[in-house]
């Protein structure tokens, strides 16, 4: 598959990233292994996870996703050279001191992630959420040490707005510290606020790579959920009801029309739209079946016309 540069990280990726939040939550280790195998077999090469995945599931404490990926890499060590591995630090692990972006916690958290992932290095390490209690200088200084040690190869941030990202870049320049090279915002056909025009412009000017999460709006853009009765179809259903409004149903109608023209599925069109967005490097998408990986591959081959892309853009701005 054709690859694209991920900001200034120095490496290229196939422009669709696997979202590892499902590992240890909606799928067990055995199914996770089969899906990871299928993902790589189809030519994809970037996997995103976080230390906090998946604390929200009953009986979990965090680290479940990283642990499953680590078991997969131990079982198939050749896979490590075939993938770029992303993980995150900063979310609340529900243990005193185990959250935020202080140097002390980052230094411990990266070791915990490396141990769970069973690897010597992380290709891209994200600040998961802004931390108002820790200066950017301290956080970026901690990352500088990790970069120099080789434990981390590039750094990014998730959920920053344009002011926060601008401030972090200014601090990096002022103190000659590593700047964030990748941004991970919430962005899809329905949700646009997390990556608005100002933030897009900043990323384009500074050559910051962008990988979007909730790329399918928690599965809503697959077309699987079209009424409140459909919300019981999966563990994610509770968070999807908000999309069942005039705007959401209008987007689904347009996706249906464009899907029919391309002989594709709505999810494939929604991903193709993101892949075609100028400021987006790659969407992140999750899978619970190997058939979903095949759908990802189809999304990569869809070529939307300029008119179709604009129609989809306009539908999400209603």
UniProtKB/TrEMBL annotation:
<dbReference type="InterPro" id="IPR023210">
    <property type="entry name" value="NADP_OxRdtase_dom"/>
</dbReference>
<dbReference type="InterPro" id="IPR050523">
    <property type="entry name" value="AKR_Detox_Biosynth"/>
</dbReference>
<dbReference type="InterPro" id="IPR036812">
    <property type="entry name" value="NAD(P)_OxRdtase_dom_sf"/>
</dbReference>
<dbReference type="GO" id="GO:0005829">
    <property type="term" value="C:cytosol"/>
</dbReference>
<dbReference type="GO" id="GO:0016491">
    <property type="term" value="F:oxidoreductase activity"/>
</dbReference>
<protein>
    <submittedName>
        <fullName>General stress protein 69</fullName>
        <ecNumber>1.1.1.-</ecNumber>
    </submittedName>
</protein>
<feature type="domain" description="NADP-dependent oxidoreductase">
    <location>
        <begin position="15"/>
        <end position="314"/>
    </location>
</feature>
<dbReference type="Pfam" id="PF00248">
    <property type="entry name" value="Aldo_ket_red"/>
</dbReference>
<keyword id="KW-0560">Oxidoreductase</keyword>
């Amino acid at each position: 598959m054709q690859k694209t540069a991920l900001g200034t990280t120095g490496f290229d990726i196939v422009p669709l990233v696997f979202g590892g939040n499902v590992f240890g939550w909606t799928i067990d280790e055995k199914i996770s292994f089969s899906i990871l195998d299928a993902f790589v077999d189809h030519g994809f090469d970037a996997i995103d996870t976080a230390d906090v995945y998946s604390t929200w599931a009953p009986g979990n404490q965090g680290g479940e996703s990283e642990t499953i990926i680590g078991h997969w890499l131990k079982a198939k060590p050749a896979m490590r050279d075939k993938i770029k591995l992303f993980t995150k630090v900063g979310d609340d692990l529900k243990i005193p001191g185990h959250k935020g972006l202080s140097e002390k916690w980052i230094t411990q958290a990266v070791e915990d992630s490396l141990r769970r992932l069973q690897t010597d290095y992380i290709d891209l390490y994200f600040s998961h959420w802004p931390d108002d209690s820790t200066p950017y200088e301290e956080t970026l200084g901690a990352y500088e040490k990790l970069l120099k040690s080789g434990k981390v190869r590039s750094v990014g941030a998730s959920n920053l707005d344009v002011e926060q990202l601008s401030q972090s870049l200014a601090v990096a320049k002022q103190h000659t510290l590593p700047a964030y090279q990748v941004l991970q915002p919430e962005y899809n056909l329905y949700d646009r606020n997390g990556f608005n025009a100002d933030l897009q412009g900043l990323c384009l000017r500074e050559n910051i790579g962008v990988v979007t999460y909730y790329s399918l709006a928690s599965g809503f853009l697959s077309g699987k959920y079209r009424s409140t009765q459909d919300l019981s179809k999966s563990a994610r259903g509770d968070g999807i009801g908000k999309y069942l409004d005039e705007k959401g149903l209008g987007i689904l109608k347009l996706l249906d029309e464009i899907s029919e023209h391309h002989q594709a599925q709505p999810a494939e069109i929604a991903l193709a739209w993101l892949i075609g967005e100028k400021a987006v490097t790659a969407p992140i998408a999750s899978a619970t079946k190997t058939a979903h990986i095949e759908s990802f591959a189809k999304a990569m081959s869809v070529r939307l016309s300029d008119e179709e892309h604009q129609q989809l853009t306009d539908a999400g701005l209603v």
